[in-house]
From TrEMBL:
Keywords: ATP-binding, Nucleotide-binding, Transport
Keyword ATP-binding assigned: yes
Name of the protein in its database record: ABC-2 type transport system ATP-binding protein
Family matches, as InterPro entries: AAA+_ATPase, ABC_transporter-like_ATP-bd, ABC_transporter_ATP-binding, P-loop_NTPase
A Pfam family recorded for this sequence: ABC_tran
Domain ABC transporter: 24-257
Claim: Cell membrane is one of the keywords in the record: no
Organism: Cohnella lupini
One of the record's GO molecular function terms: ATP hydrolysis activity
Ranges for region Disordered: 333-362
Amino acid sequence: MLAIDVHQLRKEFKVQKNREGIKGALKDLFKREHTEVAAVKDISFQIPQGEICGYIGENGAGKSTTIKMLTGILVPTSGKLVVNGYIPFKDREKFVQGIGVVFGQRSQLWWDIGVIESFRLLRKVYRVSEEDFRRRLDELVETLQLQDLLNRPVRKLSLGQRMRCELVAALLHNPSILFLDEPTIGLDIVVKTEIREFLKRLNREQGTTILLTTHDLQDIEALCSRVIMLDDGRIIYDGGLEELKTRWGKGREVQFQFSDPVTLHEVSLMTSGLDVRWSLENDLTAKVWIPREMNVSEVLSKVVGLKDISDIKIFETNTDEIVREIYQSGSAEAPRDLSALTAPNVEDAAEKEPVKAGAGES
């Protein structure tokens, strides 16, 4: 069954045109001119129940506008939109009982009262029974370690503490779909990791469908098997994250730290017959570039045993770099000219800096 079904969804806004100069300003006082701007342009996608899907795009791509339509805050200009079996902007009262929403830069908690009082007010808003509320609250408070925060005013919480409380507020009524708009913005790595682990557990144990928009692609890598990429209001990619990496990955680099000095000629002979490129960083350290279609083990099997190796590191193209290049090209289709993605030739390797396939190390 589908949790979200979107077909040819479109949202247009009327934007006032401001004319230049004093005359233009006077004219605007009496007769304003407007232009139509499309923020979301006829997009279609489906999300089955129980999936965690990343919804990414640059600023102004239409991510937040889509989320607002999916949650019933905005009315679409045209198209079909069904979430949890409801049309969000039509069946608002019944619809909100089945969704939870966290906006990273907006709070649903009351600023000057204790956290627990905000939770109690939300219990009444969502018409949750006292028994269900108490059971759900105890479970969430224990999982997110909020015992010491319940009686503090929201304004006295750190950003990380508030975001954990925002998650509890969004989940008190046990929604089947959770919408997250920049939930880890501004958080340190420890809190981000805690929230990611919590969301994975929530999805695994309760089957909660999660739609996540974020600029932090580490969130996407940690949580999502599928990603929808938006650019200028249109979907330019909808598929698996691993498929995207395979399609756009520049290959991998393996760095070998040798116990004894080596030359470029020596290391090149070790992988004779393989389409790889070597470069030397110093007389003890060499890097080999491996194309994405080749298995790293093929290279390792040829090198290990021929020389004493003190350390090995593998570098892969990271997701940030891939997404940046896709937006620069304007398309998620695989790049046709792969020559720009290859490493230097062996003959030039001693004179050039080694090509870095990415900062991610595994």
